[in-house]
Write a structure and sequence with these properties.
alpha/beta, eight-stranded parallel sheet, 43% helix
């Protein structure tokens, strides 16, 4: 079998937080330069206060580094405010729905493709069945906004220490499958999967039609290569299932962002090389 280039087949990137003055932030610009040099072609962006950012300028700014933004990451949205789409307090939940609706409209203005719901699922309603019912009701109220904005709502399967709403990939599918598939996707994350799944490969193969992206993150929440996740097994499952989406690094920096990013991207690229050797 002829060796393939990962860059020709898989889009590799990382999730970052957009600084308030990103166009002049020297550290952020250096990071984007490192992304470009390492072979990344996309980012996901946390935008804490969308109203303080000119959405329409983000795309051209990123393009200077050969990058595009795939998803708005809502985990950092309004850090001093409770955002919980499953909150039993109707006022809090209503305000949360409006915050996410604003973020969806911002994403459309910025020409992003999707908006991720992870932390925003909430963890304040202790009874799981009620929390899932309230979250589902919140999604009902956001569907039309997403459709009008041409933005995909990306529901992340997160571990039960973060939320009791969507934990395994299986129960995330069970919650979102009643919604129009063209408006929804599910986001697997290897960090959360390591906690919640009995098997890392089977859920990826079984439910691949719901995925447009996957987060690569270690069991200790560092970048790939600094923990114990078997990314070759994960990559093999994605290849077997004919996954065509993006691979996005998410995690904490252990000591040095640029060195760890470069090493992680190299590791991900090497997964393709090793897979080709395995299939010969």
């Amino acid at each position: 079998m002829a060796q393939k280039s990962l860059n020709e087949k898989k889009s590799v990137g990382i999730q970052l937080t957009l600084p308030p003055k990103h166009e002049s932030d020297k550290t952020f610009i250096r990071w984007l330069t490192t992304l470009q040099q390492s072979g990344c072609d996309h980012v996901e962006l946390n935008v804490p206060y969308p109203e303080e950012v000119k959405a329409k300028k983000i795309e051209s700014f990123l393009s200077d580094f050969g990058l595009r933004c795939t998803n708005f990451a809502s985990g950092g949205l309004y850090p001093n405010k409770v955002t919980s789409l499953s909150h039993s307090d109707e006022k809090v939940r209503s305000e949360s729905i409006e915050s996410i609706a604003k973020a969806i409209r911002f994403s459309a203005d910025a020409n992003f493709k999707g908006l991720i719901l992870g932390f925003a699922q909430g963890r304040h309603t202790k009874e799981r069945s009620l929390a899932r019912e309230l979250f589902s009701d919140s999604l009902e109220k956001l569907v039309d906004v997403a459709k009008e904005s041409n933005i995909i709502i990306v529901v992340e399967a997160v571990n039960s220490f973060i939320s009791n709403v969507c934990n395994t990939i299986e129960d995330t599918v069970a919650l979102v499958e009643k919604f129009p598939k063209e408006q929804f996707a599910i986001l697997p994350d290897t960090y959360h999967m390591n906690i919640e799944e009995a098997d890392m490969a089977l859920p990826l193969i079984k439910h691949v039609s719901w995925f447009k992206s996957i987060h690569f993150s270690e069991n200790n929440r560092y970048f790939p290569g600094l923990g114990a996740v078997d990314f070759q097994q994960v990559y093999r499952a994605l290849e077997f299932a004919n996954f065509k989406g993006t691979l996005t690094i998410e995690g904490n920096v252990k000591s040095d962002f640029e060195n760890e990013l470069t090493a992680s991207v190299a590791l991900i690229k090497n997964l393709e090389v090793l897979e080709n050797l395995y299939n010969r």
